[in-house]
């Protein structure tokens, strides 16, 4: 707080009032470095992980201007995917070959409705960079062989995340780093979701660059960090003054940096108990939803066929309504018509099983590997229900969940992550994900579960 009120000097100034703040910035730098086993000199403060991701990838590209090939995955955050799309010449949608008869990882143009794994890809020969988007399997896992096969003499940088933000699925980052090192390409790791949720040590995972953001581990929003391994090439994305040893211009936001440092220190302190506390709560939520075998009383599935429709609903007068709605209109429709009566729906009923050990919600499906996942995340498809409708009802009940990255919440698009995992299914339009943290309680999980059951019942009836 003093850094927002009384200690408002500029750390770059020569007068004592400001200059003493240099010390608090350096303390925060050490705290962030400690969280990932780095040295303070390897940490650059940024405004967010989007900036860190952009800075790392662009720095890697500048280091080998002759090399024009980038490797990433189909399930990265938009801050990596959209940068790659830009670097690839704003290419159109393409498909990734996962069929072993074809060259895995090769990208070719296709229409968005082809019903195969789709993701932005680059094929134009005049594009500034060629991008390979590695596929994932149905569990969201990446095959190291795909990475090995995709690296060519032209590859400059590989950008593959530590943990997925929508599913929590973990990539084999240690092995990825080893492959990149052995093949002489730079490795950037978006480690945003893993930070504070599992042990991270850059002495074991030898990435060249690693991105972090504060708001994923308890710091204020608007501050992030980039780890740059000693001797890894780096040139600034933001040119300006001498701040951050000339590696990132702009007056430091001292209160946010101090907050980031403190949050990193606390995250490190709580790490040993994190899994023990959070995993049982996540598992309880997940298992309570999934326990119902899909063969029991499946609710009628709604034909989606790419159309953005919401569950049909019988009006009091008996007329069947189908909401021909999208995005914003869907929100209004659900809020006006469905929400006020949510609390009046009892638990159980069609689509919901509540029979002792068999309790669960019918026709639900986990998206993401059952075990190779962060302890706090669960991503579930509720078949026959539009993600948006469920989210709105849950929001009304005080349950915060998501159907994609928060950065794309205004977009109408289905989750690119689940789409890449299950291209042949409607799972990506009918899923939501929950993430828990140390502050959550069993009572909250129970309350969320009953809200989910009520909402599912309402939308399926
Ligand atoms: N990478 C991942 C995996 C994320 O989940 C996010 C944000 O949630 C980001 C990058 C972008 O972080 P920021 O919002 O700090 O730019």
Description:
The chain has 461 residues and is α/β, with parallel strands linked by helices. The protein folds into two domains: 2-272, Aspartate Aminotransferase, domain 2 (3-Layer(aba) Sandwich); 273-460, Aspartate Aminotransferase, domain 1. The chain has eleven helices and 17 strands. The chain has helices at 16-19, 21-35, 49-63, 78-87, 144-150, 173-183, 254-290, 327-338, 387-396, 416-421, 442-460; strands spanning 43-46, 69-73, 93-96, 107-109, 118-120, 130-134, 155-159, 186-190, 209-213, 224-228, 310-314, 320-323, 352-353, 360-361, 364-366, 377-382, 431-435. It has a seven-stranded mixed beta sheet, sandwiched between helices. Strands 4-3-5 form a three-stranded antiparallel beta sheet. It has a three-stranded antiparallel beta sheet with strand order 15-16-17. Helix 7 (254-290) crosses helix 11 (442-460) and helix 8 packs across helix 9. The N and C termini lie far apart (51 Å). Bound molecules: pyridoxal-5'-phosphate (PLP). Pyridoxal-5'-phosphate is lined by residues 48-50, 77, 79, 161, 165, 190, 192-193, 213, 224, 406.
């Amino acid at each position: 707080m003093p850094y927002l009120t009384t200690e408002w000097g500029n750390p770059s100034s020569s007068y004592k009032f400001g200059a003493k703040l240099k010390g608090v910035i350096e303390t925060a730098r050490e705290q962030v470095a400690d969280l990932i086993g780095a040295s303070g000199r390897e940490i650059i403060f940024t405004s967010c992980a989007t900036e860190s991701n952009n800075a790392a990838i662009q720095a890697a590209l500048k280091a080998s201007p002759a090399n024009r090939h980038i490797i990433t995955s189909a399930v990265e955050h938009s801050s990596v995917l959209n940068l790659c799309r830009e670097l690839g010449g704003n290419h159109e949608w393409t498909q990734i070959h996962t069929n072993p008869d074809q060259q895995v990882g090769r990208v070719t143009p296709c229409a968005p409705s082809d019903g195969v794994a789709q993701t932005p890809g680059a094929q134009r020969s005049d594009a500034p960079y060629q991008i390979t988007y590695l596929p994932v399997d149905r569990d969201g896992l990446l095959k190291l062989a795909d990475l090995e096969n995709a690296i060519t003499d032209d590859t400059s940088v590989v950008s593959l995340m530590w943990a997925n933000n929508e599913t929590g699925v973990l990539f084999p980052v240690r092995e990825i780093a080893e492959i990149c090192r052995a093949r002489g390409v730079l490795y950037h790791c978006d480690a945003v979701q893993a930070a504070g949720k599992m042990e991270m040590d850059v002495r074991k995972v030898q990435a060249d660059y690693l991105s972090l953001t504060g708001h994923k581990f308890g710091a204020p929003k608007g501050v992030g960090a980039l780890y740059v391994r000693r001797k890894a090439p780096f040139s600034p994305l933001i040119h300006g003054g001498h701040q951050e040893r000339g590696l990132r211009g702009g007056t430091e936001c001292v209160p946010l940096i101090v907050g980031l440092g403190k949050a990193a220190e606390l995250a490190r302190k709580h790490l040993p108990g994190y899994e023990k506390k959070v995993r049982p709560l996540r598992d309880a939520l997940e298992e309570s939803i999934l326990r119902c075998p899909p063969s029991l009383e499946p609710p009628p599935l709604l034909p989606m066929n790419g159309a953005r429709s919401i569950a049909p609903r019988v009006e009091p007068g008996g007329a069947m309504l189908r909401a021909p709605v999208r995005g914003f209109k869907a929100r209004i429709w659900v809020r006006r018509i469905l929400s006020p009566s949510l609390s009046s729906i009892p638990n159980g009923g069609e689509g919901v099983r509540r029979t002792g050990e068999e309790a669960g919600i019918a026709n639900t499906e986990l998206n993401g590997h059952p075990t190779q996942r962060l302890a706090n995340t669960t991503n579930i498809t509720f078949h026959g229900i539009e993600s948006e409708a469920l989210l709105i009802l849950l929001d009304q009940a005080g349950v915060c969940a998501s159907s994609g990255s928060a950065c794309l919440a205004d977009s109408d698009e289905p989750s690119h992550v689940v789409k890449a995992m299950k291209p042949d299914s409607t799972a990506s339009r009918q899923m939501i994900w929950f993430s828990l943290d140390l502050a959550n309680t069993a009572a909250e999980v129970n309350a969320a579960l009953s809200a989910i059951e009520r909402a599912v019942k309402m939308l399926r009836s």
